[in-house]
């Protein structure tokens, strides 16, 4: 299925890179800014700071990032079914304008028709192993009628860029791309290669994106460290602002749990009905509230670092969370989102989703089954999860694994992690910076299989009241321009300090 860049080029000529849309007219037209035109290289003014190191002009760089983001949003890359081609063609065009040449500076790799990945490289002196900046260009589907503005318009309205992927993760990808371009324009001498990867299929199983790259083009993405989505942006928590750098991800264990009973005619009821057995097993899982608590190294680091950033007695309360019985008590007392989050961070989770039983209303089925979406902590195996569920349900159920993938945990004391922490503090000196485990899975867990130490790091400061947590995959997804402007210098500082020779 794979096609080389040259083969790819043949049809790239006949495919328009992105679909430009006319903004729909509405009552809010007076708020609507014209999407900025692409800012040329010439307009990027270079500033020298007090230490005489070269830094980009962040106002101009922000404006340019916004223009790129609008174009990326206009490139519809909804997955499923998956069609990354228009976004990748836009990035290709941009790199070529900047003087990048294929195949020396970048390659485009196609795993299936329209499923494409782009990997670009700036070369260092080779004294250190590369840093990878990886972002996915696919987005989840939209329910158009629920949106206030065109989800694929990429419009700038009241200082925010609107559209599917603005947060997850075309906005962050545009920021990575901006830093990559700046390193090239300013001819930053590098001690390690800087790799930029715009990839496919993060939203539907990784097969055409990170898995494809790791299994078939490992040499292109091989790196010591990598950054991808999911961390270091403002999360409001009460009066505090949290900046959580993703340093771990949970693994996936999807199970089918089956009960067996005595079949028969439904007009002659009996107790040995597989549906009753299944209902009882599910009810026992519900009543338990959660599976056993495990304190992982990432959770331990999270509470230690959080406790160090607050005064007494809050620090004591936070430190007490290193005892599983305290966490269990909190899980009993908490409600809503805090309870969900603490459960995800400290236990293997088990969520019933699909029910299956019976073919006909008047036939008692011999079997009944439920699909369980279980997420396991790093260090736990699918067998561990099944044992924990069995201890709640009791005998009489059987398990069939449907899909499993390992989680990942990365060190929170590595040189890169310490740098991420330090630069995030500069972003918001009053904010609390902590390592965090992602309850879901991203490309990081796939890159880990190639031995790359990955962190979820897409830094920036959201304005107060911005509903960040409900927005990724939600309706009216958008990103404030002020976020981009606050995050770019942080990303630059990380890349410059970690990769440059000086
Ligand atoms: Zn994402």
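-> sequence recovered:
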């Amino acid at each position: 299925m794979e096609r080389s860049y040259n083969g790819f080029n043949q049809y790239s000529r006949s495919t328009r890179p992105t679909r430009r849309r006319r903004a729909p007219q509405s009552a809010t037209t007076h708020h609507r800014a014209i999407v900025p035109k692409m800012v040329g290289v010439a307009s990027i003014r270079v500033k020298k700071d007090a230490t005489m190191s070269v830094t980009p002009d962040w106002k101009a760089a922000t404006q340019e990032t916004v223009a790129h983001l609008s174009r990326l949003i206009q490139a519809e890359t909804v997955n499923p079914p998956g069609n990354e081609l228009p976004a990748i063609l836009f990035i290709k065009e941009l790199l070529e304008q900047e003087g990048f040449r294929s195949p020396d500076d970048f390659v485009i790799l196609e795993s299936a028709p329209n499923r494409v990945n782009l990997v670009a490289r700036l070369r260092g002196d080779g004294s250190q192993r590369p840093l990878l900046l990886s972002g996915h260009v696919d987005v989840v589907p939209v329910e158009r009628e629920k949106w206030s503005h065109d989800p694929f318009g990429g419009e700038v309205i009241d200082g925010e860029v609107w559209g599917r992927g603005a947060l997850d993760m075309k906005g962050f990808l545009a920021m990575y791309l901006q830093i990559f371009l700046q390193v090239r324009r300013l001819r930053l001498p590098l001690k390690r290669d800087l790799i930029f990867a715009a990839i496919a299929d993060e939203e539907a199983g990784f097969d055409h994106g990170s898995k494809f790259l790791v299994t078939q083009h490992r040499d292109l993405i091989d790196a010591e460290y990598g950054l991808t989505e999911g961390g270091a942006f403002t999360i409001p928590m009460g009066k505090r602002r949290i900046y959580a750098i993703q340093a771990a991800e949970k693994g996936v264990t999807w199970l089918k749990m089956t009960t067996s009973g005595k079949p028969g005619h439904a007009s002659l009821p009996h107790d040995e009905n597989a549906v009753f057995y299944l209902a009882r097993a599910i009810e026992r899982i519900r009543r338990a509230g959660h599976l056993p608590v495990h304190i992982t190294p990432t959770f331990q680091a999270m509470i230690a670092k959080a406790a160090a950033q607050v005064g007494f007695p809050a620090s004591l309360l936070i430190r007490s969370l290193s005892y599983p019985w305290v966490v269990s008590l909190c899980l009993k007392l908490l409600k809503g989102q805090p309870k969900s989050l603490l459960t995800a961070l400290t236990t293997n989770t088990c969520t019933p989703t699909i029910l299956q039983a019976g073919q006909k209303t008047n036939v008692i089925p011999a079997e009944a089954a439920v699909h369980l979406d279980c997420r396991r902590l790093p260090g736990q195996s699918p067998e561990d999860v099944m044992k924990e569920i069995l201890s709640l349900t009791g005998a009489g159920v059987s398990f069939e694994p449907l899909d499993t993938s390992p989680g990942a945990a990365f060190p929170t004391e590595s040189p890169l992690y310490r740098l991420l922490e330090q630069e995030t503090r500069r972003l918001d000196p009053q904010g609390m910076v902590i390592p965090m485990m992602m309850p879901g899975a991203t490309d990081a867990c796939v890159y880990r299989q190639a031995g790359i130490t990955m962190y979820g790091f897409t830094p920036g400061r959201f304005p107060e009241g911005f509903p960040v947590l409900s927005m990724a995959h939600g309706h009216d997804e958008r990103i404030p321009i002020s976020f981009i402007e606050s995050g770019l210098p942080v990303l630059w500082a990380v890349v410059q300090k970690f990769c440059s020779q000086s």
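Residues 481-499 form the longest helix (19 residues).
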